[in-house]
């Protein structure tokens, strides 16, 4: 009965059940009309709203631009937006809703690893598509997810290469107490061991920790050449204020961070963090015509004071990559899109990115940035060319045993 | 020796932050027996007051000092409004008070998000508080020294107010025996209001101090309100000096445990110690009869 109801509601459908590997049902995506539905799933409320709203904005910008330029395969995109409410279980529920009752062709969104992990089985069992725009801890590769943020070998490993190149012989690791920093630090320790870098200390603070007196005192006493910071959220503010107030400077002991982008600098206070380093794949200051246009369009749409950051750019890029895959496949069907994905490339604001069809990550250029007095981030060092994604670090001999 | 001194200072500093957050609560919860979950949001209001004052005055050096009295009044007024509209209707229903004030705290958080946005804001520390203070070769962050001094001043002023002024006598009389105070001609209504004003005002002052330490966002209050309640409960409900001792002991223990373990384990151990302590002394450090919770 349900199947009949869905059929009459959706009209023509894309039938890919014959080829679906893990999928159980038939997709109900409607491509008969002049438009096709896509889903945005971001936390518009709760603690993550602060970050995910910006991702939603850039996804919306990409959809508007694609529509203005004629849509995808001649069809306008209709956005169905859902609120993940910063709760992994709600992400899973809403993903199910977008796929099964809204019948969207693809879903874009998610931020925390826990939200992605919660959505993964939903996308796999429905054989649907998710585009996930945030750098993460790697060690994952789902047939139904495209990861457009950096994996570890495009962010953390280049950051270590940079530090090594600068003559750093010892490191202190500071991170929030959850999966990303713990995994990142495992990788850092393996790299350090193979490259003769001494780890002088490793400290984790509970999420939301606000008193960094003791941790910063330990950092100061350990006197490492640099600090590798994987703290998340508000803790960064307390950490950098304490760091500065204890008289530690970026010149004497630089801190390299992997979770602080343009958006966060204002809240930490430029004075407290100017001169420190970050590792990403995109900065607002990238000097290319493509990026200038992106920044201009973003400011025109959302206000002159808005900044653009790596996850926003990765989200914007993800929609264009999906468009590229669909156009290459000449079909909205998930299996056709998956088959066409390999090698799809886009001239993104960060530079050229290319989809790796095997692990569903994208090749992107790593950039080390320095935070300027104006709160923007300026490229200090670049990997020069896009780095092939390697989520399980298989091509790095020192990393054997990490992914097991 | 250096570690010893540094960690002792960090502990006292952590204690002074706890104390500032808890001092107002020691009045409203400790003295009046009101479980005010919105106390944390009064702290947040104080922090945003510092932000607004700085935006208005521009000069970080003066604006911090101006913010202190302004935030006291802002916090106090919020407290008075809460007391006059909601709390006075439920003085003998602690559970209802808990739920209602929790609701108020959510409303205030959303209000802050609507007014100031979801992203955190920063109040730059004035030049005279930036960097470390060198004493005998040891360096202490000036901001922490400032907060320590501020907390001590706040305790002295509050103690003087309670012990030496007619207002303080009225507050103590009302707390100790409401009927007798009323029959002696004290307006207990007015006294309640003023007590709540002072207690909530102190939360505002704490908020200004916290801008020197960390992030200012709508959830600032939630990270401190539980610790503040802990301090009051450990100190013994109804006693300011209990809260003072509890805050500093908690700060020093926390900083030592954290130094010898990690921040996460440190928190677990400190909470375990608190549970054990309250098993031995359920009434806290000081035992005093109070109106509704003794």
From TrEMBL, chain A:
It comes from the Bacteria. InterPro entries: ABC_urea-bd_UrtA, Peripla_BP_I. This is Urea-binding protein. The lineage of its organism: Bacteria, Bacillati, Actinomycetota, Actinomycetes, Pseudonocardiales.
TrEMBL record, chain B:
It comes from Pseudonocardia thermophila. Keywords: Amino-acid transport, Cell membrane, Membrane, Transmembrane, Transmembrane helix, Transport. It holds the Pfam family BPD_transp_2. One of its GO terms (biological process) is amino acid transport. This is Urea ABC transporter membrane protein. Belongs to the binding-protein-dependent transport system permease family. LivHM subfamily. InterPro entries: ABC_transp_permease, ABC_UrtB_bac, BCAA_transport_permease. Its main location: membrane. The chain crosses the membrane at residues 12-30, 64-82, 145-162, 193-216, 228-253, 265-282. GO terms for cellular component: plasma membrane.
């Amino acid at each position: 009965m349900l199947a009949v109801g869905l059929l009459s509601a959706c009209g023509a459908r894309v039938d890919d059940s014959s080829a679906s590997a893990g999928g159980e049902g038939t997709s109900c995506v409607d491509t008969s009309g002049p438009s096709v539905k896509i889903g945005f799933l971001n936390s518009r409320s709760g603690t993550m709203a602060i970050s995910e709203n910006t991702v939603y904005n850039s996804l919306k910008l990409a959809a508007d631009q694609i529509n203005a330029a004629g849509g995808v395969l001649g069809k306008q995109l209709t956005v169905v937006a859902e609120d993940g409410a910063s709760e992994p279980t709600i992400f899973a529920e809403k993903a199910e809703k977008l796929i099964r009752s809204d019948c969207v062709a693809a879903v874009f969104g998610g931020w925390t690893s826990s939200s992605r992990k919660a959505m993964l089985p939903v996308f796999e069992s429905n054989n649907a598509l998710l585009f996930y725009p945030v750098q993460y801890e790697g060690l994952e590769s789902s047939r139904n997810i495209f990861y457009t943020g950096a994996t570890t070998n495009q962010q953390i490993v280049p950051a270590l290469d940079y530090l090594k190149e600068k003559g750093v012989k010892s490191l202190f690791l500071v991170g929030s107490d959850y999966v990303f920093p713990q995994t990142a630090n495992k990788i850092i320790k393996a790299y350090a061991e193979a490259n003769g870098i001494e780890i002088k200390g490793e400290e984790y603070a509970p999420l939301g920790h606000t008193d960094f007196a003791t941790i910063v005192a330990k950092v100061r006493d350990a006197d490492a050449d640099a600090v590798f910071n994987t703290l998340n959220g508000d803790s960064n503010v307390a950490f950098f204020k304490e760091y500065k107030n204890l008289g530690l400077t970026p010149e004497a002991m630089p801190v390299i961070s992997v979770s602080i982008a343009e958006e966060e600098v204002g809240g930490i206070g430029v004075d407290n963090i100017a001169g420190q380093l970050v590792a990403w794949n995109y900065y607002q200051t990238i000097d290319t015509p493509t990026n200038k246009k992106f920044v201009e369009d973003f400011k025109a749409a959302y206000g002159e004071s808005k900044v653009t950051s790596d996850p926003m750019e990765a989200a914007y890029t993800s929609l264009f990559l999906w468009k590229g895959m669909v156009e290459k496949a000449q079909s909205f069907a998930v299996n056709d899109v998956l088959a066409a994905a390999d090698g799809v490339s886009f001239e993104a604001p960060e530079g050229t990115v290319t989809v790796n069809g095997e692990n569903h990550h994208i090749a992107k250029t790593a950039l080390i940035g320095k935070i300027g007095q104006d709160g923007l981030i300026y490229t200090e060092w670049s990997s020069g060319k896009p780095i092939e994604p390697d989520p399980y670090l298989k091509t790095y001999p020192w990393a054997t045993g990490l992914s097991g | 020796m250096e570690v010893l001194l540094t960690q002792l200072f960090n502990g006292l500093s952590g204690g002074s932050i706890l104390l500032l957050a808890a001092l107002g609560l020691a009045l409203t919860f400790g003295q009046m027996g009101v479980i005010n979950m919105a106390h944390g949001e009064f702290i947040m209001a104080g922090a945003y007051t510092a932000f607004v004052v700085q935006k208005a005055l521009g000069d970080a050096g003066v604006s911090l000092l101006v913010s202190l009295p302004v935030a006291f009044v802002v916090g106090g007024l919020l407290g008075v409004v809460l007391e006059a509209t909601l709390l006075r209707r439920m003085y003998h229903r602690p559970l209802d008070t808990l739920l209602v004030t929790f609701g108020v705290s959510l409303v205030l958080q959303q209000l802050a998000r609507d007014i100031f946005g979801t992203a955190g804001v920063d109040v730059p520390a004035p030049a005279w508080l930036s960097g470390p203070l060198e004493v005998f070769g040891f360096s202490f962050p000036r901001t922490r020294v400032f907060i320590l001094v501020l907390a001590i001043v706040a305790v002295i002023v509050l103690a003087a107010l309670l012990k030496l002024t007619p207002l303080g006598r009225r507050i103590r009389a009302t707390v100790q025996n409401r009927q007798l105070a009323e029959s002696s001609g004290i307006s207990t209504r007015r006294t309640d209001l003023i007590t709540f004003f002072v207690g909530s005002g102190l939360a505002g002052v704490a908020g200004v101090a916290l801008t020197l330490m960390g992030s200012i966002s709508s959830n600032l209050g939630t990270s401190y309100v539980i610790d503040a309640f802990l301090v009051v409960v450990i100190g013994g409900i109804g006693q300011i000096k209990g809260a003072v001792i509890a805050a500093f002991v908690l700060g020093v223990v926390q900083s030592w445990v954290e130094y010898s373990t990690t921040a996460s384990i440190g928190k677990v151990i400190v909470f375990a110690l608190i549970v054990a302590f309250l098993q031995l002394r359920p009434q806290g450090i000081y035992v005093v009869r109070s109106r509704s919770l003794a």
